[in-house]
Amino acid sequence: MPQYGFHKHGLVWFLVQERTHTLEPLTYHAKRRKDGDRLLVSLIRYTYRELHSIRLSTSAIEVHRSSLGRPYYELNYPRLLPHYDISLSYRNDIVVGAIAVNPGIRLGIDIEVVRPISHELRSAFLSFEEYASLGYLMQAGETVLAVCGWSIKESYLKAMGVGLRVHPRHVVISYNSNSQALVVLRADAQISPAHVAYARIFGHTVISAVVVMP
Amino acid sequence: MNSSESIKNEVVGLIAKTLHKNAASILLSDTLSALAEDSLKLFELLIVFEKYYGEEVSYDDVIKLETVGDVVSYIERRQSLQR
Q: Which of A48, A70, A159, A178 is most exposed, with minimal Cβ within 10 Å?
């Protein structure tokens, strides 16, 4: 089970919360969305307070979704302020949000519950080399590594704003021995910008994030 | 049973088996993402479609379809093109 509250991790700040279940008349998806929006607003307010000493009211922040469901926000504030990329993920009763605390950085975040993945399904999105790369950094069993691999790829696809419209096998996870970090790339990319992946395992839950540098 | 009904039964059967749902509860208007509930299950479903129908379906096409009915119509079209 993830801990709740803020986690500052390099270029990304996370906020993990239990969902509130206070919106009974709404559908499951609408409830998830309300919970997610509420969490993102908290994260955005916290970020502007910490980085700019500005106290935004909740009504000053409007969270929207792109046609593919990617969240973004607009500020109703009299001064022009830097904008930060945000991302959101849900699993069961947990919602996790993240904000990239440098303008221009794109990010995607994902939360997954560790569960068995058949060999056939695993091989459809994760190669043996990628599996080995994950094993460099994480001391974990096969199932957890496979879930981490999936979660990192999904985070990357969310950061790029395309979701599963790009087949996850076109996204490659590798281990960079210089930076001792996992990097994620589009297999067909001509130029390889730095895409750094983070993954943390909390019991039966994996939270991952991918940061795409400008 | 006509071809359309047969494809519908196949598609609903594959969804029910992959996502552990009752086939009778799956409607043509149901969205794949709502039935799958999470992205890994949705991906698994797409892989099952690919494997079952072979060259008749492509991942890049199916991921753009929203509902069960869209998948049935797509497979009907692809099969009629190949005849």
A: A178
Q: What are phi and psi of A53, to 5 degrees?
A: 55, 40
Q: What is the pLDDT of residues B45-72, one digit of tens each?
A: 999 999 999 888 889 999 999 999 999 9
List per-block mean pLDDT (blocks of 10 residues) for chain A, which spans 214 residues.
52 65 49 80 90 93 89 93 91 82 86 91 93 82 90 90 89 77 65 67 83 79
CA distance to partner chain B, nearest, from residue A165 (Å):
6
Side-chain-side CA neighbours of residue A122 (13 Å): 18
Contact B44/A121, CB-based, under 8 Å?
A: yes
Model-level pTM greater than 0.90?
A: no
End-to-end CA distance of chain B: 19
Residue reference for tokens 């593919």:
A68
Rounded to the nearest 10 degrees, the angle between the axes of helix B39-53 and helix B3-19 is 140
DSSP letter at A35 equals H
The ipTM (two decimal places) reads 0.87
Interchain contact A165–B (C-beta under 8 A) = yes
Q: Do A117 and B40 touch (CB under 8 A)?
A: yes
